[in-house]
Structures
1.
Amino acid sequence: MSFFNPVFAFAFIPFVVIIYNLFPKKLRAGVLLAISLLFFAFVSKWLIIYLLLSIISVYVTGISISKLEEKKKEALKTVEKEEKKSVKASYKRKEKFVLVLCIIFNVTFLFFFKYLNFFAVNANLLMDYFKIGHRITIVKHVAPIGISFYTLEALSYVLDIYYGKIEADKNILRVALYLAFFPQVLEGPIARYSDTAKSLYEGNKVTFESFNYGYQRILYGFAKKLIIADRLNIIVKSVFEDFNSYNGFTVFIGVAAYMIMLYMEFSGTIDIVIGIGEMFGVKVPENFRQPFFAKNVSDFWTRWHISLGLWFKDYIFYPVSLSKSMKNLTGKAKKKLGNHYGPLVSGSVALLAVWLLNGLWHGAGWHYIFFGLYHFFMILMGNIFDPSVAKVCEKLHIDRHKKGYRIFQSVKMTFWVFIGELFFRAPSLTVAFAMLRRMFDTFSFRVGELFTLGMDRKDYVVLMIGLVGIFIMGIVHEKGINVREEISKKKLVTRWAILYAFILVILIFGAYGQGYVPVDPIYADF
Amino acid sequence: MEELIEILEELQPDVDYETVDDLVDGRYLDSLTILSLISEIEDAFDVEIPTVEIIPANFNSAAKMWELITRLQEED
Amino acid sequence: MKKAIKGIIFALIFCIMVEAISVALLPWEKVKKYGLYNTSAYEIVAEKDDSVDVIFLGDSLVYSSISPMEIWDGYGYTCYDCAQPAQIMPYAYDYLKVAIDSQHPKIVFIEANILFRDPQKLPLYKKIAYRIVNYIPIFKYHSNWKKYFTHDKNSWLNVNKGYIYITGIKASKKDPFNYMDVNDEVEVSILPENKECFDDMVSMCEENNIKLVLLAVPSQKSWSRSKYNMVKELANEKDIEFIDFNLDNDLEIDWATETKDKGNHLNYWGAKKVSDFLGEYMESTGLLEDHKNDPYYKSWHTAYSIYKEKLK
């Protein structure tokens, strides 16, 4: 299932909007939920049971935690001051028990669908190695769509209640809508309950303006995907399928093409999700912020798949690094290593946890784990060497805020990300290393080879123009200008002309139909 | 307040802490720096910052951080 | 209300623009003669008048198994695959009617698998997609913009003549000797409406003096013994020929390397075998003549050289 499907864009969305608007405000949330569940059932059939189980489990957990809170308040009123601490602690323990139970329940499903096979395969390898005559049978399970996304949302909901950031919702429909909202369930963004639940449930009418505004964002997503990503797919497929028959330069271009394709496909999908959200008056959080303008790898991850990064930061990084044992460690380390490097010790332990999980979240495979560890390493290195780099720059009289230096930083950062994405895409670690070697061993500027990959000169021209266009849009966005707002201020003729031109360019220059193979939704498999 | 700004300047000298009010949202402070900052603040002002309080709103400006510190000191 | 009117005007102007671009992306003289929809739906109308000898009707089995350029190279006959994905009998009838409007084919082949397709059962979204592609030609022909940016005089030439060139290989795991019997588990029948449609086509061919031939290309998934028997019976009844490659004629298809999707469709190497056999058959009928030295068919030589270039 892909959003980049004419039936979805031109028929399904308008159909949903019309049905939704036909109902009175009070019933609209129910309509939206019904459509979302039907959508899920259409894609994943009976596996919808797992989504429903997740919804029920977090709903019940939320309610029980809030009941325990109430009881605690009652209890605190009656006890003496000295006992208060122990009462608080005992209730905290009970709440924690409920929370952990719910987390285990949800993570078990995720583990079952995504990781069981990986562990079974590796366990078998181990047993073979030690000559234990036993094998675990490998059964392939098809996972419910978006399980990696909605599970994280579900966990954030109960964790936020536990931390006291939000109140438990007494209305299960609202919780269900928050987790199952149809555009979001496929590839995120991983929103928080406080971001979307309330506005989703309000049943705002889709007005002419909100439809128009949202649809423009959807079109932008279509342009990224159809004009650029699907063209790059030709290069990516050829190079990754048979990298040994191409020279280093072509392999380099192939990997770079993958990096850009991933961005265009994923951020294009998110554009569609956000656009649909805007139609219904829901502010789905942004997931990308011009990632390739980042100044280092750490910065990149605050601009790329933002919602995932924030999730790991809030629910893994800080809880781990600020846990009691880690705080003790920090105290000790500070005495020995000083104020900059001291906290880095506990920080890096937490960071390691984050990146191991981040790698695993993307899939069960050693190359994904390597991908995570690689980023851990790059970010840690960046942090360790930052003070020295600052000193060197000072000595050499380089202003680190100048444009030239910023561009240098972005290029350097892009190169590190490039290596990371190579490991991400390659089918295995061995292949990734072989490709890396091929890139450097046989590098020569044989540009002609690029035309043997399945794209002709005209395709390359369209691709380049498209990339330049997106790049300019990136600069405009980085400056904080809202392009759609600017367009809406123009006269009707100009406005319409821009829209017509945009749609027709997508229709004519999109890489669809005979001779092109569309990119499958990459993140939907994670 | 001055002590706080000193701490901040030691960790990340490139920012004018009197005026900037998007330290987290504007990515002046990354998560590892915030970690250092928290441990510094906890040492210097004798407070304990719980995980729940680590949200951008509390760390976006020196003034906000100061608010948080005084609030936590009072709660103790 | 004002907004609704605005929306309608916006959509109207948009439709006009799409139509205008569609005309620009199709061979426009033909659009003038046959209208936009016929030109976009039936590729054969772009061929020179009265230049096609043989027409193949059918579904994806046709455009994956028969390459007219191979037959041109071997015998100098001009063939055309008038095939559509999941073609149903009424569509085939329409296609034949449009085709004989500008062409005078001597032989028409019908890949008989379409006799077993229930026209009613065609999924709704496929029906809609068929209409959309025909009525909004831009979806199918948008890549023709490239033709405006080339000096090549032959850029509008249809090289493959309906055939779709596929080199992918997905080996079949089925037993190459008994699949016709294994497939028999599925019950099949020729629906009365398909039969009626077929009768109409038979008489259309008779009126136009066309030899009609039924055909069954090699497919381990689409063909079965009972389908074979029914077509055989129909052919006897109408006294027309039936060429079958699953039981009667053994082309020695290597199902490990000559299929693109585990035995359902052939790839290029399989298609070459089918095309060579059919060329030989056409020669044996004595109905056709070699056009290789006829200047009227010059463009076929050009097309063949482009086709051959692609095969490398």
Note: Chain A has three domains: 6-205, 208-288+414-526, 307-398.
2.
Amino acid sequence: MRNIGKWGLGAGLTAGWAVAFAAAPERVPWQLNMHPGVTQSSHDAYDLHMLALWICVGIGLIVFGAMFYAMFAFRKSKGAVPATWSHNTIAETIWTVVPILLLVAMAWPATKVLINEAYTNESQMTVKITGYQWKWGYDYVNWGDKAYHVHFISRLDEKSDRTRQLRSGLNPGDVKDAQGENTYLIDVDKPLVLPTNTKVRFVVTGDDVIHSWWVPALGWKSDAIPGIINDTWTNISEPGIYRGQCAELCGQDHGFMPIVVKAVPPEDFKKWLDEQEAAQNPPAPAAAPVAQQGVPSMPSNG
Amino acid sequence: MANTSAHADHHDDHDHKPEGFLDRWLFTTNHKDIGTLYLIFAFTMVIIGAAMSVVIRTELASPGLQHVQPYFFNQMTTLHALVMIFGAVMPAFVGLANWMIPLQIGAPDMALPRMNNWSFWIMPFAFTMLLGTLFMPGGGPAGGWTMYPPLALQGGASVAFMVFAIHMMGISSIMGAINIIATILNMRAPGVDLLKMPLFTWSWLITAFLLIAVMPVLAGAVTMLLTDKFFGTSFFNAAGGGDPVMYQHIFWFFGHPEVYIMILPAFGIVSEIIPTFSRKPLFGYQAMVYAVASIAFLSFIVWAHHMFTVGMPLGGELFFMYATMLIAIPTGVKIFNWVSTMWQGSISFETPMLWAIGFVVLFAIGGFSGIMLALVPADFQYHDTYFVVAHFHYVLVTGALFSIIAAIYYWWPKWTGRMINETWGKVHFWWTMVFVNLTFFPQHFLGLAGMPRRIPDYNVAFADWNLISSIGAFGMFVTPWMMIAIFAMSKKQGAIAPQRPWEGAHGLEWEVPSPAPHHTFTNPPVIKPGMLAHGDVTH
């Protein structure tokens, strides 16, 4: 009875947090919980996280409840006389079988999500990500069936960089974007621009040491390892700015190579990408005229 | 030799200690003295490692770099881990094993006493070498305690010193493990059957096999680092045909059993203390032994759960996820058994019991986050964030370290013949409870909010919980000094401890006087019913 009361109270409290933080911006002071993010993967990760959290809270309430009950009810100072039993087959069976069922309840959805996340085929564009000490390189490889040769390096923004020097005397609180959001150490000079509602495949590698590319709102991280190419994908549902950081220790400036993804509608993205392509690959003066291919045909979103 | 243990007419009450300081401590072959040396060494390392964590938490107390350069910060995180794992937790457990295993099985000493001396005495040299790198040009190792190449190879001469230090620690651990196995299998007093041994001895028997199995693997991995760095090999260098991920597989094939090397003896300790202060036999003794054994077995087939983001194939991710989740079953059995031991007992809350209860509750919290981390898609978010930092500090600090402190409080009267001041012991416990949770619980929130680990500076959104965590760490730094004061006070003016200072204590260690004489069980004890904790219960 006692446990059920506690369970209800705990459930109410934690559900309150979950609701309060699901709608909050991505990073807030005193934040308690994971943000659900803006992709199917991040929603799935969030749901699994909450499922596991609830199962753990439930087990915790029962086990700790029983333990605290024992600590109050069976005190020597209250004259408790010790029993001598040390076995109970029924109880032992229950607490072996029930956890197995709970594990299956978690492993089942986790397996489904994982199978989905491993499927990088049928992507509509590919971006190559390269980790360097201490910046990120991005190559737009294709969009639909058109090849692109857009490359740029993305590194920590200048204001954060000046502020983060040892005893710089500058206030990290003053590093803000146009909306007034603090972007200290999570802003870059050139963000990675991506289209929304598009399955984007990433191939991730490292140039010098191992890095890890992580934008929490996308729901995963992928290690950037020299000599190895990892592939993964995302499909962002809402336009916006999503920030992340390198997640694998990569040397002294590991904390200073953030990631910014700017998600824009596909039409805007196409315009931006063509501009970049034109700027980075000006037609050679004597070359044969390059046929303007127009909007590349996009694979169906099946 | 001053050691007269070979005398035919020797008795327990003849307390023949060597006279000279060097004879007593440097040339010692006595399991109790070597145990003491291990514990003092571990305590020194705790202070050094904790000082490093104070540097870390001072820098992290607020956003912006105020105190140290990032490269030095990385040296601190790297050495903090190496010192705490190899210098503090492991030697402390070996020290407890040295002291207690012969006493618990009725043996006169460890099976290989001279090797025992050597296993201890190479440790100070290993750590002098490791910590000495801090004063060399280029500083200490800064690539993380996991030493992942290629980053770890970017260090200077410190790489060589670190590798040789790890070799020496490994040799020490392997010799210690051989000694423990030889002692337990050969030197039990007649009547101390394997399945009547105390849980602490059992857990150490299994741990020792883990050590022998995996320390050579670590030695191999770091040797390959050494030759990659200094002799032009390409084991882990992709440009030369090697594979940086291979290092991670080899490292974690050592690293995951290593995690259990640091927690199985803790399970043993808690399984001693909870029945004592519940005045009731341990619930499910055999289930506890089998649980430890199955955790040890599973620890060999879960290593890649530290590497879910390296890009393993789907089948690999699924296998390591399922195998990891399985560990929850035997671990759950242990926790349920401890609670059942308390159920309908007659519980009192002396200081060792408080630490043991603190262990069960907080270790369980570390176990919960462990289950969460096992779920691969969720781990894609948690991995390498402060959520992981919170997780492993809950299992290592409030798990392993709490159990070590509990053990010291529990066996201290046997070692010294003095009781501790219960009031101060309780102050120590509650102080630690408050500050350890203040330090590590908010780190769950930071990780979930997106703060990566191993960074010296962070966005201002993370500032509040970091400050709380730092305050907790500063409070924690008081506790080792508090502990020194409590035990110094006890040694000086503590009440005289009876042979069996805890009413509910069973086991052969409580059949010898307090303090335990320099030599015990030179004649095997005659086991009477009720002497062994597990001898008079039907299985």
Note: DSSP finds 16 helices and no strands in chain B.
